[in-house]
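Feature request, filed as a ticket because there's no other form

It would be nice if the structure record came with a short human-readable summary line next to the tokens. Right now we just get the raw output. Example of a typical job, pasted below so the devs can see what we mean:
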Amino acid sequence: MTTFDHPPRILFLYGSLRDRSYSRLVAEEAARIIAGFGAETRFFDPRDLPIHGSVPDTHSKVQELRELSLWSEGQVWTSPEMHGNITGIMKNQIDWIPLTLGAVRPTQGRTLAVMQVSGGSQSFNAVNTLRILGRWMRMFTIPNQSSVAKAYNEFNEDGTMKDSPYRDRVIDVMEELYKFTLVLRDKADYLTDRYSERKEKVAQSAITLPAVRIER
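Raw output as currently delivered:
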């Protein structure tokens, strides 16, 4: 078993560029909460991240995002709901994180919490999409989630979240993410070890091994 000498590392991604972005404010509130449990938190600022495929992946913002993903042991994805789904800003960030970087998988085995904000009544379209993406990225998405309805009513002028059942749920989600990250981070390699991938590695090794000539 691996012994960890550092707090759980949690990366936050959010899906809006507005000056008063409620998805960012929820993420910031969640970061304060999970830091209170003992986690180390970092944010990725999606401003200046190019549209996926429009530039080489050597672009500085792309590299920053990928390095943060590799740094993380857990992630929190928070998106506004727009036209019944996540925003393009949110999807663009996820699209830039590949399933593999050589022999390294930037998201596999990491924990994930999903949250959304809505301008109207409560909905779960965005978190449902984020769950699909989390599964595709081979992440352990925790059962709990947060959906904040009429988000413009839920924050103080200083950007902190008002005391409400919505904030209580954010606390629940962060507590659960913290616990799942602690429990799973030294077991991720074992839990994500797949027969099909082991079989593929054996096949590739057989192809790349040099032929041995036997003198008779």
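Something like this underneath would help us a lot:
The CA atoms of residues 98 and 106 lie 7 Å apart.
Helices lie at 22-37, 60-71, 88-96, 125-136, 165-184, 188-191, 195-208.
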